[in-house]
Design a protein that fits this description.
mainly alpha, about 0% strand, about 325 residues
Amino acid sequence: MAPNKSERIPANNLQALMRWSMMQGDGTEQSAEATLQQMGPERLEWLREALASLSVDIVEVVMKNVKELEAEDAADDAADKKTAALTSLTEIAEDMDNARDLFALGAFTPIVKALSSQHAGVKAHAAEAVATIVQNNPTCQQLASDAGVLDPVLALLTSSSSSANTDVNDSAAQCQLKAVRDISCLTRGHDSLRAQFLAASGIDRLGSLLQHATGPQIVVKVVFLLCNLIQEQPDLKEPVVGATLDTLLSILATHADADVWEQTLRLLCTASEDSSAVTARLRASSLAAALSARRSVTAAAAEADRDRFKEELEYAATLSARTTQ
């Protein structure tokens, strides 16, 4: 559990704490002093207020966790200690005020570094921490962007399971799942981060991830993210469909999973709405044949199971109407 904010930090300790938080960048006191001196009055006041609002207990816990994250990956028990530290920081960040305070304490920088750990479990826990910190929090989204979080998150999309440090519970697939959630939390409602993601060939990266997906969970997560991106930026309809349609149709041909079908059809419905170009592309594809084959599956379902297909069938009816006009 995260500590309570009961006992506040004494004012005479604030300056030292501010220096410590700044040192979490490159670790030098000279750099920390220079950063503090270069801060504008508003940013300096924000840092001072954020640190002053924290309890002594929270500061001590964060400092301890940061120290664990600063250890070399090759150190004894480094993976276990780092995952425990990241779990603790994630729990602290579940309070949105605490999430902001982690930046003030310099704790976000070692979390970002942990995204590139040689241990898959550490990377997955770091990605979970990032998502918790920035979710539905525009201030933290911007601070995370300033900290350069997007590049290491994108690298996780192509994580390899060849590392000797990867185990069955912390596989490359888990890193990829967490990375997709990170991208969703980082880009939702944040135009700048979404633009950075798109500029880094984000749609093609997600398309590649779909091509190599080994199970329904990653497919559902990626398709859900693509749909959200289209909803926030409608001019992505044609690029998304262009990059993923063949893969999506192949997935529908090989997956019977109801969630995969529902989310994929939802994406195609969203993309084709008010888009003659996308509708024409769907009409020329094998979608109609896939929908016809799927109808025999849903029709054969037991009466008690048919509710689970309700939304899927609604999306299918909409797509059939659009592509047969």
